[in-house]
Design goal:
- This protein has about 375 residues and is of the alpha+beta class.
- It has two domains: about 5-175 and about 295-380, Zn peptidases (Aminopeptidase), CATH 3.40.630.10; about 175-295, 2-Layer Sandwich (Alpha-Beta Plaits).
- The chain is built from nine helices and 18 strands.
- The strands form five sheets. It has a six-stranded mixed beta sheet, with helices on both faces. Strands 11-13-9-14 form a four-stranded antiparallel beta sheet.
- α1 (about 5-15) packs across α3 (about 105-125), α2 runs parallel beside α3 and α3 (about 105-125) packs across α9 (about 360-380).
- About 45% of the residues are buried.
- The mean pLDDT is about 95.
Length: about 375
């Protein structure tokens, strides 16, 4: 049976809608499993919940070298409310671009890795170490798949993990961490016609955020990741127009650089808010951590990084300098959980992630497949 091309595989995966929540990644994992089995790859599906499966595909080597693990997630974000020029799950191709949710983030990258693994398996070449593909659930929400993957018994014999998130085929060896925070402010309700009798929680929250946003958090600028960022992504408050709101909250996305911790960021935020409280004694607040993942850095001097760089430079005839990513990936769980170096490289512009009319250049899918094929063959 002829193995579908990386372009056909990407289209099939994109047309298999897996927005998270709820995820429902099992059908995409099934597509990947069938594809790999067609090429003779050993496949194991790892159930997490109803409709949700991780996947492990393994091309076994002789054991003379440690394994390489290729990793990508099956879930995507929802298409959003804005109209698309092409169907969000249509995977239509126009002017050399494939459009659809997940084309860049990151079913194109998943397909490129699957195609490379299948190609190597079908060739019958003898590898000195295992080549493993790990497909995960839940990266877009809670990384439940990556956390389950930590239980795999193959990590001690693994050399490195490669993740094919979109990087425009550039080499990434560092990513920012994140802490998601909730700032809740308590006021006092009153009738809208007598606001002086209440304490407006929305106005107090607004002033608190005004003071936080320009605040300079303690950090050293990272050579690859720059400085941390703070974004207020969600605000809630009020009951009805003719009431003074007695509660409001903001959810804050703070991106960490190495040297920072969630605990340290929360303490600095509290220091700012306490200064406001001393000026405004009626200000009552709570800061809580909703979720956090640490920054990830891989030593660019490692031989596996040099190898990854050489392969790309040979293929594309351009310099491939190790860089950093502002977003976070499954590496936030896998790097600290396994102690293994993580390298990120994949097709697609990272700016396309979560955008309306998300797309990936078709030629980058083919180039990524070739890269991951050569990377494994020359190392293993």
């Amino acid at each position: 049976m002829k193995v579908p091309s990386v372009i056909d595989l990407t289209q099939e995966l994109v047309r298999c809608a897996t927005p998270n929540p709820p995820g429902n990644e099992a059908p995409a994992a099934d597509i990947a499993a069938r594809y790999l089995r067609t090429a003779g790859v050993e496949v194991t599906l790892l159930p997490l919940a109803v409709g949700r499966n991780n996947l492990l595909g393994r091309v076994r080597g002789s054991g003379e070298k440690r394994s390489l693990v290729y990793c990508g997630h099956f879930d995507v974000v929802a298409p959003g409310d804005m109209p698309w020029s092409h169907p969000a799950f249509g995977a239509e191709i126009e002017a050399g671009l494939m459009f659809g949710r997940g084309t860049a983030d990151m079913k194109g990258g998943v397909a490129s890795m699957l195609a490379a693994v299948a190609r190597i398996s079908a060739s019958g070449v003898r590898l000195r170490g295992d080549l493993v593909f790990a497909g995960t659930c839940g990266e877009e929400v809670d990384m439940v798949g990556a956390r389950q993957l930590l239980q795999w018994d193959g990590w001690p014999n693994t050399e490195a993990i490669f993740i094919s998130e979109p990087t425009n085929l550039n080499l990434v060896v560092a990513e920012r961490g994140v802490v998601w925070l909730k700032l809740a402010v308590k006021g006092k309700a009153a009738h809208g016609s007598t606001p002086q009798l209440g304490r407006n929680a929305i106005l107090m929250l607004g002033e608190a955020l005004r003071r936080l946003n320009p605040h300079s958090f303690t950090h050293e600028r990272h050579p690859l990741l720059g400085s941390p960022t703070l974004n207020v992504g969600l605000v809630r408050g009020g009951t009805k127009i003719n009431m003074v709101p007695d509660y409001s909250e903001a959810q804050i996305d703070y991106r960490l650089v190495p040297g920072q911790t969630a605990e340290g960021v929360v303490e600095e935020i509290r220091q700012v808010l306490e200064r406001y409280r001393r000026e405004q004694p009626d200000f009552r607040y709570e800061v809580s951590v909703m979720s956090t993942y640490p920054p990830m850095t891989t030593d660019p001097g490692l031989e596996i990084v040099h190898h990854a760089r050489r392969v790309g430079e040979t293929l594309w005839k351009r310099a491939l300098q190790p860089g950093g990513a502002t977003y976070f990936t499954d590496a936030a769980v896998l790097a600290p959980g396994t102690g293994k170096p993580v390298i990120i490289l994949g097709p697609g512009d990272p700016a396309q992630a979560h955008q309306t009319d998300e797309h990936v250049p078709v030629h980058q899918l083919e180039e990524a497949e070739e890269y991951y094929t050569r990377l494994a063959l020359e190392w293993l």
